[in-house]
Structure formats: C-alpha cells, structure tokens
C-alpha cells in the first residue's frame, strides 16, 4: 500500500497500488450515520466532505466491486494528493456502504486503491466510469514526465517503492524495454477482462522451466501470444493445456497444495521470452513463490501457476500477476508506450 490524501486540509488514506484499476473510492464519514453500516466502516479511515474547502458535490449514485469488497455510495470531487503530486477535481466514489464478502477480512488493511491503469479497465459490476488519477495527472500536466516506476516487494516484510513522474537511475544499465500492445480482448469474463483492458500488454513468445527432479527442461512455445501484466492478481495464469503441462513437470497434483519454504531451492527457475526483441527474463523460486503463514504459524510457500478461466475466449493470452513482478523494478512510460 501507499499513502494518499484527499481534500484541503488533507485527509489521509491507505491505498493499494494497482496498475489495472481505474475507479477511485474511499469510505465516507456518512457511513457512520447508520449503526449497522458503521460496523464495516469504522476500521477504516473515512472521508469527511464537510471539512474540505475543495470538495465539489456530485451525488450521482455509484456502486463498485474490488476483490471481494462491495461498496455503494455517490460520486464526489476533490483534490487528491499522492507523493507530492496534487490532482484537482478528481472524481471518486464516496462509499456510504462498505461490505466485504463472506470470509473476506483483509479489507481492513486498506481504505482505497490508487489505480494506475493506462486505459479505463472494464468492470462488469461497477456502474460508473470516471477519469482515473493517472489519466488526470497526464491531462493536468502535473508530472515531470508521463512515467511512473514501481518496485514490488517479494514478501510482506519488504517495502515496495512507487515513483510518480520519474524513475530510479540506479537501474538504468540493467533495464530491458518492452513495447506495449494495444489489443484488448473481447468477452465478458470477469476474471480476465478487467486486467486485459487496462492497457499493460506485451508480446510473449515462449515460457520455460529448468529441469526438475527426473524431468529435463520444459520449453513451451507461445507463438503470437500476448502477456497481460497486473499486480492486482497474485498468480500467473495460462491456458489450461499449458497450466497442466506446468503441473505435470512439477509433479503438482493439487492446485491448492503448498510447500515448506525450506524446499524452495528444489524448484526450477522459470524464463519468459518477452517483447519484439526477444528479451529473456528469468525468475528464481525466491521471486515467484509466495510466502504465507499457515494457521499454526509456520511459513509455507505457494506455486503461482493457475489455468485461465474460460480460456477458449482468449486462447492466445497469458496473465502475469504479482508473482511475476515480485522483486522486479519496472518503469511504465505512457508517452513511449513501453514498460
């Protein structure tokens, strides 16, 4: 998460950084007017429009869904502040109802989402479509350059980094450049289209795993495939026939199996060939395997490979989620249309 604030004087919020989200939302102080709704809103920082001198009412009803959290409320406008950058008149949902789905409890760790989608991401549930903070930054010319940089942490104990309008020159000599592809897929698959429509797509031509146990290297050609990049989804997703090849190579019978992190060194490196220049990017199991803590407090590691849902609608796509970005530094350049 990162810190953002809204209004003048500034009201702080904890926001997830999501490159495939567009709509901005925050809990409203008006949520406390109803004692039942207040139970869900009180764990969060809440926006109070009555104390902001730059608040502009809209009052258009709006609903939203974000990873198991459903919100209802109305649209409002105010100044949004992010790391020294101010966006005037940003439209957002002021949520007077905030409802996590059954068994969802991680919503108390954040209050909002800073959406950095290049295009407005298609979401079949949201009934409003506003200009994202990133789009407004570009339109209002408040960035030194129309670029942002993101370094994603590998574990919950590490801190990531977000740079708006600039980059970290320490990585200048180790970067590869991937031109973006503008090819949003058709369909209404709610598990895939929101990511694929956000504008962060690159060419991918192959995927491989090094030798593992009794099996030699696994090489999978991906002719004319497109990789959708997102940090808003944890795993990597492949068409079903490829996902099952990966599982067979790893002797992995159950998608829900986890492993002792002490065994992580036994798993193979994975390599993606990306972009028109055929750049090979290798990830070690210390990068792509997630660390989680089980109910007994033991650290466990999880493989991030899953089959795509409804992959017959988009057979030539793969999705590279947070497991791909873990430990990597990435620059997103809107003017050059590249990562």
UniProtKB/TrEMBL annotation:
One of its GO terms (molecular function) is aspartic-type endopeptidase activity. CDD domains: pepsin_like. GO terms for biological process: proteolysis. InterPro entries: Aspartic_peptidase_A1, Pepsin-like_dom, PEPTIDASE_A1, Peptidase_aspartic_dom_sf. Disulfide bonds join 31-41, 261-301. Keywords: Disulfide bond, Hydrolase, Protease. It comes from the Eukaryota. PROSITE patterns: PEPTIDASE_A1. The keyword DNA-binding does not apply. Residues 1-339 form the Peptidase A1 domain. GO terms for cellular component: fungal-type vacuole. Belongs to the peptidase A1 family. This is Acid protease. The lineage of its organism: Eukaryota, Fungi, Dikarya, Ascomycota, Pezizomycotina.
């Amino acid at each position: 998460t990162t810190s953002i604030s809204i209004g003048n004087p500034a009201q702080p919020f904890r926001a997830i950084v999501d490159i495939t989200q567009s709509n901005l939302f925050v809990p409203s102080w008006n949520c406390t007017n109803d004692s039942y709704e207040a139970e869900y809103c009180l764990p969060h920082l809440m926006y109070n429009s009555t104390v902001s001198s730059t608040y502009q009412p809209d009052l258009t009803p709006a609903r939203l869904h974000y990873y198991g959290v459903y919100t209802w409320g109305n649209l409002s406008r105010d100044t949004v502040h992010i790391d020294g950058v101010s966006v005037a008149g940003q439209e957002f949902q002021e949520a007077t109802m905030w409802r996590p789905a059954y068994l969802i409890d991680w919503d108390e760790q954040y209050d909002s989402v800073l959406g950095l989608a290049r295009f407005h991401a298609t979401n079949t549930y949201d009934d409003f479509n506003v200009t994202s903070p990133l789009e407004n930054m570009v339109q209002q010319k408040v960035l030194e350059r129309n670029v942002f940089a993101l370094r994603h942490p590998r574990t919950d104990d590490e801190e990531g980094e977000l740079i708006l309008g600039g980059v970290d020159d320490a990585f200048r000599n180790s970067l590869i450049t991937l031109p973006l592809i503008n090819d949003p897929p058709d369909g209404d698959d709610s598990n895939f289209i929101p990511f694929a429509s956000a504008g962060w797509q690159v060419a991918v031509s192959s995927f491989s795993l090094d030798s593992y146990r009794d099996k030699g290297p696994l090489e999978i050609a991906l002719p004319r495939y497109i990789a959708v990049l997102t940090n808003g989804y944890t795993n990597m997703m492949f068409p079903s026939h490829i996902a099952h090849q990966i599982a067979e190579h790893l002797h992995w019978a159950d998608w829900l199996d986890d492993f002792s992190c002490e065994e992580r060194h036994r798993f193979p490196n994975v390599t993606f060939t990306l972009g028109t220049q055929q750049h090979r990017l290798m990830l070690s199991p210390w990068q792509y395997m997630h660390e989680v803590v089980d109910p007994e407090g033991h650290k466990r590691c999880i493989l991030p490979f899953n089959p795509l849902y409804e992959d017959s609608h988009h057979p030539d796509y793969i999705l590279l989620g947070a497991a791909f970005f873990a430990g990597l530094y990435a620059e997103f350049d809107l003017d050059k249309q590249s990562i």
